[in-house]
Amino acid sequence: MKRVFAALLVLLMASAFVFAQAGAEATSTSGSNEIAWPKVMTFGTAGTGGAYYSNGVAMGTLFEKYLPTKVTVEITGGAIENVVLMSQGELDIAMTNEHLGYFANHQMSPYENLTNPQFCVLSAGLTPGVIQFVVGGNSPIKTPADLKGKVVAVGTQGNGSLSTIKAVLGFYGITFDDFTPSYLNYTEGCQGILDGTVDCCIVPAWAPAAAVTQLAASGKAYKIIDVDLREEFVAQNPFYITWDIEPNVYQNQDYTVKTLATANVIIVRKDLSEDIVYELTKCLWEHIEEVYTAVPGLRYSLKLENALNTTCEIHPGAMKYYREIGLVK
Fold first, then answer.
1. Are residues 155 and 186 in contact, defined by beta-carbon separation less than 8 angstroms?
2. Which value, in Å, is the radius of gyration of the alpha carbons in the chain?
3. Would you tell me the crossing angle of helices 98-105 and 162-171 to the nearest 10 degrees?
4. Dist. CA 54–CA 317, nearest whole Å
5. Domains in the chain, please, with CATH?
6. pLDDT digits over 114-136, tens only?
7. Residues 173-195: pLDDT tens digits?
8. I want to staple 45 with a disulfide (CB 3.0 to 4.6 A). Which of 51, 52, 277, 285 is the partner?
């Protein structure tokens, strides 16, 4: 009987220990410093059908697996809204466009009223949004400058890529008043090229993009035109990058497309502790193969050599890791 009582006592003590640990704030040790992890961290993405969401799920799963915190992947309005939500303290981790980060830090449209942006970069190098000007096979459109007087599908009203499209076309002296904008989604815009109701569909998305893949599979002639003067554009807009779409990314595309892309970055709340962001950064890069397995396209852009390619401030915790591994001195 005494043995049974002793065994029960041990079990009760063990259970009490487990419940006490579960109720306490999660902690971790980094060197000699104890880290007070939040019980839950929020990761802002976009709609469920986009790259941001799949990227967020992959990274959120990774952080939750190796770090003592729960990560909730939040569906948001995307790149533009993520900067605002983070500055309001509603997100801990998120993704946004590099150029939107720049605009927020300089109070440029659409952030004229965001007086105190509260975000830093954990890493650059997320899958870029490749700007694809898609036209019919017999189209006279050769460069973006030829879009004057045409019907151009630019995506749905309010989508985050409209600022990108306006910036690129503005470089050529073109505004939305110079053509007829059609606010179709990318699939509908590419279908409009097939139907002859649209002269050009601008698709700022990773290549291959589903809408262009579908158009290419139709068997009808199409082209993706080059963006000329792109080096000059990037020199004036360093938050964009040049990008080549290699041959055969799409069916019947046996040529290289020279275009531009929006760089994308992982951002974190500015007031997150250096220790927490250090551990997030270390976790990401030490287990990056698991992210690549979940989202294969990230293998081509989310690489250590691209991590610091940003015009925005890098969080001190992330910079501590990059110095530690010798990426910066």
1. yes
2. 24
3. 80
4. 25
5. 27-127+264-324 (3.40.190.10), 128-263 (3.40.190.10)
6. 999 999 999 999 988 899 999 99
7. 999 999 999 999 899 999 999 99
8. 52
